Amino acid sequence: MRALVFALVVAGLASPSARAQDDPKAIIEKAIKAHGGAEKLDKYKASKAKIKGTISLMGQDVEISGTAAQEYPDKAKAVLSLSFGGQNIAVTQVINGDKIEMSFNGMKVPLDEDALEDMRQSHYVGSLAQLTPLLKDKDFTLKAGGEAKQDGQSLVGVAVSHKKHKDVTLFFDKTTGLLTKAEFRGKDDMKNEVKEEVVYSDYKAVEGIQVPMKEVILKGGKRSQEAVSSDYKVLEKLDPKDLGTDD
């Protein structure tokens, strides 16, 4: 009987610490501090950068390069160039509120609902790195997201729900508090539903904000995209010219 009482006492002493470590709000608060603090994250909601990397097309790794601009929560533009099938292709993607467009070599292409949803979800996942809205916006619901490992790092997760988007689990480095991975349900090139992961690394301070210079996207465990940023700038807002609009 004494052994049982001792076990219960130990569990009672240990559980508050465990609960504190898994508390979603505490995890996000630590992450906000690690990424530069709420004041700076709230000030700089936009960014511009040059990007280089690869994208998987029909089983081939194709090199891409170009520029990307974004302003959260609902503006982004990427201008990319790639060579595929013996052709040089210029790709432009624009998100401006509910308006989503893509063009190849200057010609707009129709997007089916799967493509539109993929672009919306990708931009939404990127917007979660702003972090502060997770604690301010009542449309977000946060729950403990479990633990994981990434390249030897111990991660702790926060499951994020929003009424307009698919659920996403954000994983943060237990030691540094930095965002390391985002997981959600997506679709592969064959439109099969798979686990999609965005892995963030190579952090660099820009205007006091910690920014990942490398992002890798995995779909069903297979590498789909890899991009490395340079000449990264954080901004309070984008110039309408950055989106190619006058809005």
Which architecture does the CATH hierarchy give at level 2? Clam
Cα distance, first to last residue? Answer: 73 Å
Q: Please state how the strands of the largest beta sheet are arranged side by side.
A: 6-5-4-3-2-1-13-12-11-10-9-8-7
Question: How many domains make up the coordinates?
Answer: 1
Are there runs of 5+ residues with pLDDT below 50, and where? 1-20
| Overall 3D form | globular
Mean of residue pLDDT?
89
**Tally of individual helices:** 5
Proportion of strand residues:
over 45%
Question: Largest sheet, described in full?
Answer: 13 strands, antiparallel
- Structural class, by secondary structure, is alpha+beta
Give the total of beta strands.
Answer: 13
Helix content: 10-25%
- The gyration radius over C-alpha positions equals 20 Å
What's the CATH class, please?
Answer: Mainly Beta
Explain what the structure shows.
- Strands 6-5-4-3-2-1-13-12-11-10-9-8-7 form a 13-stranded antiparallel sheet.
- The chain is globular and about 50 Å long.
- The chain has one domain (2-243): Lipoprotein localisation LolA/LolB/LppX (outer membrane lipoprotein receptor (LolB), chain A), CATH 2.50.20.10.
- Strand 10 (179-187) and strand 11 (193-206) form a beta hairpin.
- With 247 residues, it is of the alpha+beta class.
- It contains five helices and 13 strands.
